[in-house]
Design brief:
By secondary structure, the chain is mostly helical. 61% of the residues lie in helices and 3% in strands.
Length: 345
């Protein structure tokens, strides 16, 4: 005799599963002030120490100073990741302390903290929403949109998505030029204040370095560390949402938590790179609950092994995904230009 259909358990919809994680992850949101201060110290002190060592090394070898400056990019990248946690109010219980820590670090990362915090919040609030693209994200077109472009428009998009532009010119443009103005927030005075105060602080900092050391420390130590850290940061931001089975949907079908969980990757990195990137590779968990301090993200995966199986991506796989540029609504996946051409002409 068949079972009564009313007694057959119903599998919850994917978006409901994602929403249910919010309550589960809430217990990981509380930061430990001592741990947070320690994380800042073990990142900032070595960063300053290597800077000093590289400055001294200029009297021995410009090449050695350059190598030390380039290596210091790892600590600068970690500082940016800590600034990222400040922007989410995740590093300290005090929002005031988080914000001022982020603003100070923002001078070192050439990033106006309050401007970045606002645009990044827009990214979290609209990630994967096809109707709300344009702020705090990597511009991604659908196959249909791309096919409707003129030849010039297609060329422009191809250039934009070319790795040499996106990860070569892109980081320099973003951190040296775009960050100097509150792009996207030009009508609001508080963001002008954030950008201009950060700019003034950078001028003072670089001016002091120039006064005591001339141009050499800026070119040999500051420039390589900033460029390498910016490129690494751009790459991490890119691969966290640009992979074949990511999630994009029009506003009518878009679900915040579903897009957060299934539209963000778990970038599995070697332990040393995971430390320098402050666990930002555990990005799907971060997007579902952004108030979790970065140092508690591995704890989440340890306690909930099922989360470690979602959207796993290693370095080799991420390099393959870098060739995907167009979202296909029909197959619900990212395609390369070649794949789109084969499918649609």
């Amino acid at each position: 005799m068949p079972k009564d259909a009313s007694h057959v358990p119903v599998e919850p919809k994917p978006q409901m599963k994602a929403q249910n994680w919010v309550k589960t992850l809430a217990k990981y949101r509380e930061p430990n002030t001592g741990r947070s201060l320690t994380e800042v110290a073990i990142t900032l002190v070595p960063f300053i120490g290597i800077w000093a060592l590289a400055w001294w090394a200029m009297s021995v070898s410009y090449l050695l100073a350059f190598v030390l400056g380039a290596a210091n990019a790892l600590f600068l990248l970690r500082l940016f990741a800590i600034q990222h946690d400040c922007g989410h109010g995740a590093l300290f219980k005090s929002r005031h302390l988080s914000d001022w820590t982020g603003r100070i670090i923002g001078v070192l990362t050439l990033t106006p903290y309050d401007v970045w915090r606002r645009t990044h919040a827009a990214h979290h609030g609209t990630a994967g929403n096809l109707d709300k693209r344009g702020m705090g994200d990597i511009h991604t077109m659908t196959v249909e949109e791309y096919r409707g472009l003129s030849k010039l428009g297609k060329l422009q998009y191809r250039l934009y998505r070319n790795p040499f532009v996106l990860f070569g010119f892109g980081p320099s443009y973003l951190f040296f030029l775009q960050n100097r103005l509150p792009i996207g927030l030009m009508k609001q005075g508080r963001y002008w204040a954030s950008a201009m105060t950060t700019n003034l602080s950078i001028v003072v900092l670089f001016g002091v370095i120039w006064y005591f050391g001339g141009l050499a420390p800026l070119l040999l130590i500051a420039l390589p560390s900033i460029l390498i850290a910016a490129t690494a940061g751009m790459w991490l931001f890119y691969v966290q949402h640009q992979f074949e089975c990511t999630q994009w949907a029009p506003d009518t079908d878009w679900q915040l938590h579903h897009a957060a969980l299934h539209g963000s990757s778990y970038y599995v990195l070697p332990k040393v790179l995971q430390w320098f990137s402050a666990n930002i590779g555990i990005h799907h968990v971060h997007h579902v609950y952004s108030r979790i301090p970065f140092y508690r993200l591995p704890e989440v995966l340890k306690d909930h092994a099922e989360l470690a199986k979602i959207n796993r991506m290693n370095i080799r796989e991420s390099l393959v995904n870098a060739r995907l540029h167009l979202w296909d609504d029909k197959s619900q996946r990212l395609l390369s230009f070649a794949q789109a051409r084969q499918l649609y002409g």
